[in-house]
Amino acid sequence: MNYLITGGRIITATDDFFGDVLVEGETITAVGPALEAPDGVERIDATGKYVFPGFIDPHVHVYLPFMGTQAADTHETASRAALVGGTTTFIEMCCPANNEQPLEAFELWLEKAQTSSCDYTFHMGVSRFDQETRKQFEEIVKRGVASLKVFLAYKGAFSLSEEELYETLTFAKQYGLIVTAHCENAELIAKRQAELIGQGKTGPEWHEPSRPTYIEAEGVGRLMTYAETTGAHVYCVHTSCSDALEAVQTAQLRDVNVWVEVVLPHLVFDRSYAELPGFEGAKFVMSPPLREARHQEAMWNALRSRLVSTVGTDHAPFNFQGQKEMGRDDFTKIPNGIPSIENRVEVLYSEGVGKGRIDLNTFVDSASTQAAKLFGLYPRKGTIAVGSDADVVIFDPNAQREISQATHQMAVDYSAFEGWQQQGGVEHVLLRGTVKVRDGKFVGEPGTGEFLTREPTHF
Ligand code: URP
Ligand code: ZN
Ligand code: ZN
Ligand code: ZN
Fold first, then answer.
1. Which residues span the domain enclosing 175?
2. 264 C-alpha vs ligand 3 centroid, how far in Å?
3. Residue 454 domain-assigned (yes or no)
4. In testing the pocket of ligand 1, which one of 287, 323, 332 has its CB within 8 Å of the most ligand atoms?
5. Which pTM does this prediction carry?
6. Number of domains making up the chain
7. What is the dihedral of CA 20, 25, 28, 30, to 10 degrees?
8. Side-chain-facing half-sphere of 282: CA atoms under 13 Å
């Protein structure tokens, strides 16, 4: 089926105009005012609506064995949630444990993702770097992965030694890969956690004090030094505070190639959510933690000024019952993560554009275009242009919706946004020319998402 999307207000990272979009097969074949309708096309009336490029979530976890349990979504449920929320491509962290073979892990993750109805690719997690794994990473790059993920946090699980960090960044520089990094000081967090638990401070409200902003800033600063030394291009994931932004800014002044991601929870929740009584706060435990409200203002500001390039989610869905509850007597055992793959685009629109914090171009740029550019998907993804994949979101700015676990698609037993009133909403979504969401309802099929192969660009 071919489609002519008519009369909408088309927004890209740089443009804003009224026009039509012609979709033939999987591709956009024309964009402009009053296009002719070829025989047999279906018209989609977008009058009064925005026409956005499909959104890209640069940071999600779907299959994730972590902290003694496993994330609750499957690729089938997470991709459906992504699509109804306007996300047509996600980049998942492929996170093997340090005693696993990276190539086997990559193949396992590919296998798991077979049920996705959303397009996807992976940041390849490096939890061990030596001669054996190096060969496997070379093979994974040949198979179309152009970005890596390192953890400076999670002592004893994912965190790398400093020597491995150096070797990984040197490898990345040689192969033109961008290295995404979770920046916190694993050692200091372990020490503070033990101290707090020893003092009987066991509730979720102690999660933030166990990893304060300066411990995140230290991680960022350390990554900057390694990037400066090796010349590797790096990307700080889920940056949560002004201290970390300062560490990035000073490095940029030294010509370090660094980009910054903020994730939705850090923009819209402050640390008081993790202090909710009755262990409710556990729903808001993620790392880096939710911060004091002044850091939210810093992150919005940095998004406006484009010191922050992208908005992701760090979707990491753990049920409240049976999973978050594992940490009832010890906050260090609460599986980290706030499920939000479904909410990113709409809440960013509602809280960002709707409340005058960011403009429409910044919204599209940070939620789609920048991720495509940084991770080797542009211009196939991330814009509305002739020749691009026909990934299109038709968005009704006048829709009013209430967010609830009762109606969401994510396979998790709570919504962090329960009861939130949302201004604007996703109406229709096309992915490579196929309608996946019609009138807000998922109409896609599991397994129709594609693994997107990418070429390295960060030399
Ligand atoms: O709390 C988080 N962020 N959970 C997922 C793992 C990670 O650190 O990205
Ligand atoms: Zn992380
Ligand atoms: Zn993550
Ligand atoms: Zn680069």
1. 54-374
2. 12
3. no
4. 287
5. 0.98
6. 2
7. -60
8. 26
CB 313 within 8 A of CB 61: no
ipTM computed for the complex = 0.95
Q: Are residues 329 and 408 in the same domain?
A: no
CATH number at residue 76: 3.20.20.140
Summarize pLDDT for 271-281 with one digit per residue, the tens: 999 999 999 99
Residues 295 and 173 in one domain: yes
How many whole angstroms from 61 Cα to the centroid of ligand 2?
10
What is the sign, positive or negative, of the torsion defined by CA atoms of 273, 274, 278, 280?
A: positive
318 and 433, same domain (yes or no): no
Neighbours of ion ligand 2 (CB under 5 A): 182
- 402: domain CATH number? 2.30.40.10
220 and 294 within one domain: yes
Burial tier of 150 (Cβ tally within 10 Å: 0-12, 13-18, 19+): buried
Alpha-carbon span 239 to 298, nearest angstrom: 11
Q: Which atom of ligand 1 is nearest to the CA of 154?
A: 8
Tokens of 430: 């096309």
Please write the tens of the pLDDT for every residue from 383-403. 999 999 999 999 999 999 999
